[in-house]
Design a protein that fits this description.
By secondary structure, the chain is of the alpha/beta class. It has a domain at 189-314: Trna Endonuclease, Chain: A, domain 1 (3-Layer(aba) Sandwich), CATH 3.40.1350. The protein is 73% helix and 13% strand. The protein has a 5-stranded mixed β-sheet with strand order 1-2-3-4-5, sandwiched between helices. It starts with 6 loop residues before the first helix and ends in a 7-residue tail after the last strand.
Length: 321
């Protein structure tokens, strides 16, 4: 028989008799303690299920959060769409008002057109009557046109004769005006140039009314024959309207004056007198002053004369040129 003196002896016996452990556990532990391992296992399984459920809950909450955000976005879109729809409705209402006004205008215009059509019908009737009257008058117009053509031919022939007479009168008037100017200059040229340029002891060497001084003619001929001036310059001197030789008061210098006279002074007069003055300077080695004298000159030609160093003198005509 085995004797148990202490706990160590009991432990050795239980190690050799494992079936005693279950019996001893039943004797020592209550039913609650015996059921504790199963309870713990059940609790562990429950906790595992809770953890899994919590994970599913977290996942579901995340999906719910996304759904809520989507719902918020949808609500925002609905609000914006509602605002756009409200604006569109407002535009439609305004457009409807404009269409209503336009329809009103069209109705009024239709009434006016109806009245106008009636007036046109009445006018057409009047036009029909007028066309008949025109047809009746056309024959008389054709006859009158023939008479007018004949009268026009007679008028054109008379106009041609008048134009020819006018041309002859203008030519005669130009000749008379030019002759008057040349005669007036021949009488007054020395006093006129003395006032304008400041000359004294001036001598008229050549003019359209007086042949050239013989000594002057010989000087020009000799200059041409010696090659001092060209044939064109000799010709230009002989065709110059007025040539004077004088003393200038300001410095007592001997100067030549070449002058061209015309009713209306132009660029050709300026160029001719400039060429004459240049040729006289070549022949005599003295200053030659170019002058143009006439009744009128256009402003562009006056500017050309100033640029060429040509003096412009305008005088009042006895009668309008």
């Amino acid at each position: 028989m085995t004797t148990i003196n202490n706990i160590e002896d009991l432990a050795r016996i239980l190690e050799t008799q494992p079936h005693w452990v279950a019996t001893l556990r039943t004797l020592l532990l209550s039913e609650e303690l015996l059921a504790l391992p199963e309870t713990v296992a059940n609790l562990t399984a429950a906790v595992q299920e809770l953890q899994e459920g919590q994970a599913r809950l977290v996942e579901g909450q995340a999906r719910l959060t996304d759904a809520v955000q989507e719902l918020r976005d949808a609500v925002q879109e609905l609000r914006e769409g509602y605002a756009r729809l409200t604006a569109a409705v407002q535009e439609l209402q305004e457009g409807q008002a404009r269409l209503t006004a336009a329809v009103q205008e069209l109705q009024e215009g239709q009434a006016r057109l109806t009245a106008a059509v009636q007036e046109l019908r009445e006018g057409q009737a009047r036009l029909t009557d007028a066309v008949q009257e025109l047809r009746e008058g056309h024959a008389s117009l054709v006859e009158g046109h023939a008479r007018l053509v004949e009268g026009q031919a007679r008028l054109e022939a008379r106009q041609d004769r008048l134009e020819a007479n006018q041309a002859r009168m203008e030519t005669t008037l130009g000749y008379l005006v030019g002759s008057d100017l040349e005669a007036r200059l021949h009488r007054r040229v020395r006093s006129l140039l003395s006032q304008q340029i400041g000359l004294r002891q001036s001598f008229l060497i050549q003019s359209t009314l007086v042949d050239a001084n013989s000594d002057f003619y010989n000087d020009v001929t000799q200059a041409y024959e010696s090659g001092l001036i060209t044939p064109a310059q000799e010709q230009r001197i002989s065709e110059t309207d007025l040539i004077l030789h004088a003393q200038r008061r300001a410095d007592d210098a001997q100067v030549w004056v070449a002058a061209e006279a015309a009713n209306r002074l132009d660029e050709s007069d300026i160029n001719r007198v400039r060429d004459t003055a240049d040729a006289l300077t070549i022949i005599y080695g003295e200053e030659a002053i170019p002058v143009v004298i006439g009744y009128r000159i256009d402003e562009p030609d006056r500017e050309r004369a100033e640029a060429a160093g040509v003096l412009v003198i305008t005088i009042r005509p006895v009668f309008p040129p």
